[in-house]
Each structure stands twice: as structure tokens, then as C-alpha cells.
Write a structure and sequence with these properties.
Bound molecules: adenosine-5'-triphosphate, magnesium ion
Oligomer: single chain
Strand order of the largest sheet: 6-7-8-3-9-10
CATH class: Alpha Beta
CATH superfamily: P-loop containing nucleotide triphosphate hydrolases
Number of domains: 1
Helix content: 25-40%
CATH architecture: 3-Layer(aba) Sandwich
Strand content: 15-25%
Radius of gyration: 18 Å
Largest sheet: 6 strands, mixed
Number of helices: 10
Length: about 280
């Protein structure tokens, strides 16, 4: 007996209009089993975010199908709440996209907890989620603009996890974080999702983190899957020249294994500098 996948994408094509149109995702099939973390890696522009958005129903499919626990995921526009109630959560590459600028962050995490309860899942306290992602519990009444990019991303992660999703799609959830906390936050996400028997589609430039947390890895290039398989196998015995080149680009000495990217903005704002909310 095989378990029903939490996510099953078949022959997905995502096309953006233009002259010529951009085929961002060109026939990708991928599944995520309950309890499994699947990583998507590949250079900038390879179609990772487009596929992630298609997986949660906020990007129209030009062809193919996406099923969530055996039910079709239909494009929902930006009605994220409906998606949430089905048990899908997404953490976006840009944390500002995940958070409502006008709502206090404690209320936004409470929304996640309410979503969990509405689905019959276990709730929890806002403060516990803040602690889990390494933020002080005293910041609940602040608004998103009072946080750095990395801090906002932690809040977005806390809110998504608090909803106890069956499927978490996380697009570069750790790249805005301080390097010293990236691995622990990624590990926390993986552990909480796996413990709940949920699945995670995890997108990251950080190949060292991917290697640690992903059960399987898909290598995307120009909208197509170049190679996929158990992460250990993809790393120890990459079959495709593109994968070999990608892995060869990892700087070995410190094992950091990251594709160069913009410097982190996390903790740029010190807590002592954050003014209290007025009014
Ligand atoms: N809204 C859009 N309209 C037109 N083209 C787009 C749009 N979004 C993405 N693209 C194009 O589609 C392709 C895939 O983009 P996508 O953002 O999915 O890649 P990515 O792998 O997530 O890249 P990155 O690592 O930089 O986040 C790129 O050529 C990009 O320029
Ligand atoms: Mg992207």
C-alpha cells in the first residue's frame, strides 16, 4: 500500500506572457510524501519559485496537474486564506509578501494558530512560536516594518508552522537569516513538519543545508528537472553534468556550501533600536 502524496505535480508547465513568452517551468513532475522534505535547487531563473507558486495554487498552470492529498489544487489567485484552510502553507522568498504590513505580528501568528485549530490540529501559544524561531516574546505588539528582513522571515516561518500545515512550501526561507541560524531554523522546519507527518517542498541556494535536511533533491535548470533522487545519492553520485557542476561550485574548506548570494540582513536592526509601538 502506498501513501497518498501530500503534493503530486505532474507535467507542470508555467508560462508568463510576453514576446516571446517565458516558459518558466517546462514539464516538471514531482511528489512529496507525508513526512518527507523535498528540496528544489538550481540557479537563479531556473523556475523554482514559479513551480512553488504553482504547487500552492497561486500560479496558473499552462499545462499539467497539481494534486494535494489527492484533490486538485485549483488556482486561487491570492486568496491565501482558503489555501490555508486546506492545510497548505507557503513561506515566500520575500518575507514582506508573507506578512500583512498592517497587522501586529502576534495577531498574525495567532491567525496561524487559529487555522490549525479550525482544521482540528493542535494549537499552541504565540510566545512559544516566537521562542522556537529565536525571537523575543516581548515583540508581539509590533508591526512587520519594525523588523529586519531576517526577523520578518522568522515571523513568517512561525506563522506558517503554527498553522500545522499538511504541506509547507518554503521558498528560500532561510536566505534572509543570519548565517549562524540558517541551519537551525531549517532543521526546526524539517523536524516540525516531519513529526506532524506533513510534507515540505524546500527551496534553497544553500546546498549544505539542503544536504542536511532534504530526503530527496530535485535539480532544476531552465524549467526542467535535470536530476532527482535521494539527497545522499545525488550528492555522492551526481549523474547529470549540470548537477556535477552545481556541486563542484560548493566551496569545500568550511563546508558552507552556499551559492553566492546577497549578504544577510538579519539582525541588522538591534532590538534596543526598535522603538515601541506608539498609539
Ligand atoms: N511574473 C513573471 N513574469 C514574467 N516572467 C517571470 C515572472 N516570474 C518569473 N519570471 C521568469 O521566469 C523564469 C523563472 O523564474 P523563477 O522566479 O521561477 O526562478 P527561480 O529559480 O525562483 O529564481 P531565483 O533563484 O532567482 O529566485 C525566469 O526567467 C524569470 O525571469
Ligand atoms: Mg525564486
Amino acid at each position: 500500500m502506498s501513501e497518498v502524496a501530500v503534493l503530486d505535480a505532474r507535467d507542470v508547465v508555467v508560462r508568463y506572457p510576453g514576446t516571446p513568452p517565458v516558459i518558466a517551468v517546462n514539464g516538471v513532475s514531482l511528489s512529496v510524501a507525508p513526512g518527507e522534505t523535498v528540496a528544489l535547487v538550481g540557479e537563479s531563473g531556473s523556475g523554482k519559485s514559479s513551480l512553488a507558486r504553482a504547487a500552492v495554487g497561486i500560479e496558473k498552470l499552462a499545462a499539467g496537474t497539481v494534486r494535494f492529498r489527492d484533490a486538485p489544487v485549483t488556482p486561487l489567485g491570492i486568496r491565501r486564506r482558503s489555501t490555508a484552510l486546506t492545510g497548505i502553507q507557503m513561506v515566500f522568498q520575500d518575507p514582506s509578501t508573507s506578512l500583512n504590513p498592517r497587522r501586529r505580528i502576534g495577531d498574525q501568528i495567532a491567525d496561524g494558530i487559529a487555522t490549525a485549530k479550525a482544521r482540528g490540529a493542535e494549537g499552541s501559544r504565540v510566545e512559544e512560536w516566537l521562542e522556537k524561531v529565536g525571537l523575543p516574546t516581548t515583540v508581539t505588539s509590533r508591526f512587520p516594518h519594525q523588523f529586519s528582513g531576517g526577523q520578518k522571515q522568522r515571523i513568517a516561518i512561525a506563522r506558517a508552522l503554527a498553522a500545522r500545515p499538511s504541506l509547507l512550501v518554503a521558498d528560500e526561507p532561510i536566505s534572509a537569516l543570519d548565517a549562524s541560524t540558517q541551519t537551525s531554523v531549517a532543521g526546526l522546519m524539517r523536524d516540525l513538519v516531519a513529526e506532524a507527518g506533513a510534507g515540505m517542498l524546500f527551496i534553497s541556494h544553500d546546498l549544505a543545508v539542503v544536504r542536511r535536511i532534504a530526503d530527496r533533491t530535485f535539480v532544476l535548470y531552465s524549467g526542467r528537472v535535470m536530476e532527482s533522487g535521494p539527497t545522499d545519492r545525488v550528492w555522492s553520485d551526481p549523474q547529470h553534468p549540470y548537477t556535477q557542476a552545481l556541486l563542484a561550485a560548493i566551496p569545500e574548506p568550511d563546508g558552507a556550501g552556499r551559492i553566492p548570494e546577497a549578504p544577510s540582513t538579519d539582525d541588522r536592526i538591534l532590538w534596543s533600536e526598535v522603538p515601541p509601538v506608539l498609539g
